[in-house]
Amino acid sequence: MRFIDKLTPGRTIGLTLLALGFAVSTAHASPAPKSQYLLTGFTQHTGNELGLGGYQDSTADSGKQCKTTFRVSEGKAFSITKTTIKGPNAKPRQAFAKDAGDGRGRATPSTQPDGKGWQAVLNALNGMANHDGTWTVILAFPDGASKGCASYDGAARLVLDASF
């Protein structure tokens, strides 16, 4: 009770403002965007979406493709500085991703720097935007994927280097 007795009107207002400032600053703290999406639900089909002949039209080479979709739902715009598809299993010939805004990126996978698996860096999907919605990932195997598309379920992932 002594502390309360010693509070003057000016001190009470100062403490109230301090408490409100803390509440407001913690209420506006934004969590970092999700940066890794584990890719599941790959289905196998034959198609030419990747333009395996080096171009994207109906005359492009076609081959076996593994395709999946997933949702991004951050609820706000954020900046992607690098988009990478990675996997520990058989390296595809081409990797393709399409974001919810119909941005598209395609790359030829290379060996990961640590030597464990493959990665494909897709710079075309980068930038500040609201990236929410359904994304599509396609891995192409014109020579065939020996273990099939199911071997990518829960093994391949899309990694976003992103910030608000």
Short description:
This protein is mainly β and 164 residues long. The protein contains two helices and eleven strands; from the N terminus they run ααβββββββββββ.
Structure description:
By secondary structure, the protein is mainly β. The protein has helices at residues 2-6, 9-27, and strands spanning 36-38, 43-47, 63-72, 78-87, 94-98, 104-107, 110-111, 118-121, 127-129, 133-141, 157-163. Strands 1, 4, 7, 8, 9 and 11 form a six-stranded antiparallel β-sheet that branches. A five-stranded antiparallel β-sheet has the order 2-3-10-5-6, with no helix packed on it. The chain is globular, with a radius of gyration of 24 Å.
Topology overview:
Blueprint: H1 2-6, H2 9-27, E1 36-38, E2 43-47, E3 63-72, E4 78-87, E5 94-98, E6 104-107, E7 110-111, E8 118-121, E9 127-129, E10 133-141, E11 157-163
Antiparallel strand pairs: 1-11, 2-3, 3-10, 4-8, 4-9, 4-11, 5-6, 5-10, 7-8
